[in-house]
Model the fold of this input.
Amino acid sequence: MKAMVLDKTHRVHALIIILGAVTLAFIIPMSIAGAAPFAYITNSDSNTVSVIDMATNNVIATIPVGIGPEGVTVTSDGTKVYVANNDSNSISVIDTATNTVTGTISGVLNPYGVLVSLDGTKLYVTGQYEDMESVYVIDTATKAVLSTIEVEGVPAGIAVSPDGTKVYVADCDDNTTAVINTATNNVTSTITVGICPEGVAVSPDGTKVYVTNYDGNTTSVIDTAKNSVTATVSGVIGPLGVAVDPNGKKVYVANEEDDTVSVIDTATNAVTANVDVGSSPTGIAVSPDGKKVYVANYDDNTTSVIDTATNNVTANVSVGIGPSEIAIGSAISSLTGNITETKTVTQPENNTTGIEQTNGTKAANVEQTPEQNSSSSTSELESTKAPGFEIISGIVGLLAVFLHKRK
Done:
């Protein structure tokens, strides 16, 4: 009899283990899905940010921000997005879990480029205001301006080194790129590049900086150890945005003047392909895995998606009006709060209707500040729980019934 009781007990334990494993098999993929990358596109003429789910290339949210949004940056943990509102002299702070603006930073004049430090404690913002061209250093916790760094010319694009010790700023009017020491907030070097530099990007190993020279139709390659230009890449027409792939082998340049993206081989510093995209491409970003490139096309209100293996455009995603810049990050959603709202979105620019899905629990009666007005009209259709919860509930229920019967 004792042996029989022990055998039954073992079977119960085995079943519990199996059910637990099955439950985890559902929970783990859902947790991973919550960390999928998203592309955040500033729409400068509709005062919004479009959020693209990079797994599906669908716009899942359209977020009202300030007036004339330009630069955009995502924290390394994916929890916040910062947007430079050029015409309202402010920075919008977006919570990626709810895709809503949770704060506004003031005290910056005509902010254009923006980046967040690796630890998320500071913002570096380029300001363009007549003779007061500066780089603002902002404390993200207190929203206070810690320092104002004067630079030459008109500061535009901005990038940070992988170790966080240097910030590089493209100065259009002065045809230079400034190097800022983040420990002292001082300009330590000014590097002469091409005519009217706009975009800037740093290689993953921090040894090179790539600067697009809009009026010179070139891309300068800077050796960061020497702080000097070691190569000049031609074959780009009206280059603006620039991005380096994760392995540092390719550079992608958005050419506003001829509606293409140039692919540069970093080993030879030569253009190996020109990919036709939308009209007036400006901002550009590479996915974390290096398989996709996202391009903001200002004149046709789309974002092109390029397959880096084939250099073919695989999708053209309709976004807001006047898309300018792009940043990519991963938003982490909690298991218990992962709600999907389905909305119909009418886009005024082309009178087309699409589907918008917003991740995060819906917030009721949210008061918007005047700078958060949007030209988009949305009507809610339905709200459903994320897939998988019904299955998990069923498993838990089955386990409870079985244990009850054993009693």
User: Anything to note?
Assistant: The chain has one domain: 35-330.
